């Protein structure tokens, strides 16, 4: 995620657990939008061929939901990033976001969920080019992305964590610890953590950008990086069976003195407000009943990741 500007505001109120947990409303992205723009540039002409897209910045009601009900299926864009979204060994969409999607789309009268896997940076360009109908990848909500797509309210709020060698020899707890010691930090392609690191004073020359958290674990174990930065759930999962690396305690990143909230949701084309609004209705039913936590618990999510933040607050 590259930086997007946002006026400072007081931290939103939450009725669930309050993290000293992670990510920002400062306009910091959880993944860069720039990374995938070129990848999907060739598909731009398809958007005009399939259906009219409103001018950039406009929001319209749209009838996609009715068309998907008639078709009986919905295409969801996912990135290969456990536990948020991935294709399982049966070729089916799996992970936190697809699991939520299956329940909500069924309640909206859409029986089949078809995954369309792409690189994370290509999710928004692919959505706008109509390669799929919804982004179902646990994408962080921030002002830069809100200018391009409509977001559901977030379904989780998460902190950051580091993969470090067993014993944490450099005593790394925050991004500033890495900057102060002049260490190399690894993180994922287009991750928001790139921006958190730069904001903490880690120079670009000491950032090692890797495809994913598995590559990050390898880099730490091999000594090519002092740490790998990612979401708490992602980091905890990847070190689970490692004897040579561990996860640090979760922490809340700050940028320019403000917390960088890592709240993720589903993205819709700006021409499909009706679809987004209907999705939100069902999402809030899951939150109110407690079903949402039960859906995402198998993927490592807990009560601590539940949130009552809204997309409006994050945008």
UniProtKB/TrEMBL annotation:
UniProt keyword annotations, A-Z: Signal
Domain of life per record: Bacteria
Ranges for region Disordered: 1-28
Domain Solute-binding protein family 3/N-terminal: 73-303
SUPFAM superfamilies: Periplasmic binding protein-like II
Pfam families assigned: SBP_bac_3
InterPro entries: Ectoine_EhuB, Solute-binding_3/MltF_N
Protein name: Ectoine/hydroxyectoine ABC transporter substrate-binding protein EhuB
Organism of origin: Streptomyces cheonanensis
